[in-house]
């Protein structure tokens, strides 16, 4: 990550994104809305770092690892297997201050893996289910490179799209519906899904739809 600017935002208490269990509900609305659930399912240690393993949705191969450094207010993703751009991807940096520039990556997502540079325009504290969470509003330095001209991160939640797409602006067709941490609802956008169910593990959901996604082990689609 390339960062320019001060860290005045550090005066606010940090809200961690990862708990013992963390679950996200991804909403897709194409001819009707469906929900795909994914979340953390166990820990593993790689190169001295403790990661949570993502499971569910298209993270079912067990090769998506995520970790959080609360002291730095940053979230990282590691992919097991070949054909990756970085050994470890910086996903979110919640230590940024307004005016800072950061390098955004979207590992194995519909967006470019190297999403280019984004500038933090504003930070707004918005009341959610468990209190005020800071919303980070960023714009792309070069929208052609980034594809998405803007993006939104929510402290304690992540992107308002898929967790591995921090450079993607949520849309009416694809967006985050619900997020739970340790069984407690953190975020809810129920305009298209009605309500958020308290799903503690990815195996509890009965809503499954076919998903096409690239595998990082070979040139093929699942």
Produce a short descriptive summary.
The chain has 222 residues and is an all-beta fold. The protein contains one helix and 13 strands. It has an eight-stranded antiparallel beta sheet, with no helix packed on it. Strands 7-8-9-10-11 form a five-stranded antiparallel beta sheet.
What's the arrangement of secondary structure elements?
Blueprint: E1 22-29, E2 33-46, E3 49-56, E4 64-69, E5 74-79, E6 89-93, E7 101-105, E8 114-128, E9 131-140, H1 143-146, E10 150-154, E11 158-159, E12 174-181, E13 184-188
Antiparallel strand pairs: 1-2, 1-12, 2-3, 3-4, 4-5, 5-6, 7-8, 8-9, 9-10, 10-11, 12-13
Could you walk me through the main structural features you see in this protein, from its secondary elements to its overall organization?
The chain is globular and about 40 Å long. The model is unreliable at 1-9 and 199-222 (pLDDT under 50). A hairpin with a 4-residue loop joins strand 4 and strand 5. It has an eight-stranded antiparallel beta sheet with strand order 6-5-4-3-2-1-12-13, with no helix packed on it. A five-stranded antiparallel beta sheet has the order 7-8-9-10-11. The relative contact order is 0.21. The protein is built from one helix and 13 strands. It has 222 residues and is mostly beta strands.
């Amino acid at each position: 990550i390339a960062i320019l600017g001060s860290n005045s935002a550090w005066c606010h208490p940090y809200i961690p994104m990862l708990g013992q269990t963390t679950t996200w509900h991804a909403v897709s609305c194409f001819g009707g809305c469906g929900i795909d659930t994914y979340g953390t399912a166990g820990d593993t240690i790689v190169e001295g770092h403790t990661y949570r393993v993502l499971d569910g949705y298209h993270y079912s191969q067990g090769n998506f690892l995520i970790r959080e450094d609360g002291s730095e207010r940053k979230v990282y993703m590691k992919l097991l297997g070949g054909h990756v751009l970085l050994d470890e991807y910086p996903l979110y940096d919640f230590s940024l201050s307004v005016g800072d520039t950061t390098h955004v990556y979207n590992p194995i997502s519909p967006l470019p893996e190297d999403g280019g540079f984004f500038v933090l325009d504003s930070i707004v504290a918005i009341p959610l289910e468990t209190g005020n969470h800071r919303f980070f509003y960023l714009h792309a330095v070069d929208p052609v490179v980034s594809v998405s001209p803007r993006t939104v991160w929510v402290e304690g939640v992540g992107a308002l799209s898929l967790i591995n797409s921090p450079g993607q602006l949520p849309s009416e067709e694809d967006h985050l519906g619900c997020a739970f941490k340790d069984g407690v609802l953190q975020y809810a956008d129920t305009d298209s899904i009605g309500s958020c169910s308290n799903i503690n593990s990815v195996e509890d959901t009965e809503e499954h739809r076919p998903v096409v996604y690239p595998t990082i082990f070979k040139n093929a689609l699942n």
